[in-house]
Amino acid sequence: MQPDFLKGIRFADFTWAGAGPFSTKLFSDFGAEILKIEGVSRPDPVRVGGPFKDGVYGINRSGYFASRNTGKRSVAINLKNGQSRETLYDIIRQSDVISNNFGPGAMERLGFGYEDVKAIKPDIIYLAMPMYGEDGPLANLLGVGMTISAVTGLMWQTGYEGEGPIGPGTHFPDHAANPYHAAFAVMAALRYKRATGKGMKIDLSQVESTINCMGLAYVEHAVTGVERERLGNRSPHFAPHNIFRCAGEDEWCAITVLKDSQWAALCEVIGDRELASDPTLATAKGRLAQIERVEAAVAAWTAARDPVSVMQALQARGVPAGLVASCRYLMDEDPQLRHRGYWQTVDHPEIGEARFTSPPFLLDGERVSLKRPPLIGEHTEEVLAEVLGYAPERISALRAEGVLE
């Protein structure tokens, strides 16, 4: 299905890279009109950063860009051309939301700060997503997913005992915390506008947004004053709580025992009577005190079995367990994702058929169908004619003056 819940809402979307475009994609997937303002001379970095379909470079061939910009319309305008401002003002006048994830001052230098925009569109909803927010002693610092993971403490908490911090393996803030917080804030602002007729400025700090998703470690420090130590995949409260190597090349299974009854079930499944009968291991405290012994016994059992059979055997007895899935497994073999139709194939004029993640829910049993991402500048003339009412002669003149790219 292609829901039109947000039909009639229009964005002048200046966002680029990861977090910003993902935020506005959430709206385009539900029927909002997202006018992606970009340029050929200074393109979105993920357009030129890949990964590229079949390893062939092309400004329209980036899988990363495609996945974060489904359903949008691309308007290619040279923001550095002083004559572009009036055209962009016209787009903003016809929009409900203007969005950007640049550092503080960037939009002001272009003439699109909040006060500039509010002067021509008083009820505009203005979304800004700088790293630290728009004011404060660190506001002018720039950041991306990795650096935000660092300054928020995410990296401090991830790593192995006795070793240094390790990143989460992806730009977690770009793909989870920040886009969803931004989308929620915009939806709240749209509801407020519907009720009052007034717009507002949303100053979303990507650092604050990411900290908001960190959870238990901050709570523990607030309550105890103690900084949690890095333990890798272990837990300070439960045992065993780790990933264990299985049969095959680089195959693993995660096993978590949260209750003493689950420990008894685990011992029965692996057939270790010695562990099962040892009273010193009957509680989590006792197992943590002998963690090396406990994990060695579990690892000896998993080493002879494939991760799927390990997961199934333990889950059948109520022990939480899950194979450590690769991207290949998730896309090609995972039976649950296949059953629910999670991966969608979208046909693209340059890269052909490509698979994308779906919104993670069904609506009345149906998936939200994704529309394809735009080619750069694909909708420029269409938008200027249909949305702004520009005559063909005016559009041709703007192209001749270098305003349109």
UniProtKB/TrEMBL annotation:
Q: Tell me the organism's taxonomic lineage.
A: Bacteria, Pseudomonadati, Pseudomonadota, Alphaproteobacteria, Hyphomicrobiales
One MF term in GO for this entry? transferase activity
Q: Which organism is it from?
A: Bosea minatitlanensis
Q: What is this protein called?
A: CaiB/BaiF CoA transferase family protein
Q: Name one Pfam family in it.
A: CoA_transf_3
Q: Which PANTHER family match?
A: SUCCINATE--HYDROXYMETHYLGLUTARATE COA-TRANSFERASE
Q: Which UniProt keywords apply?
A: Transferase
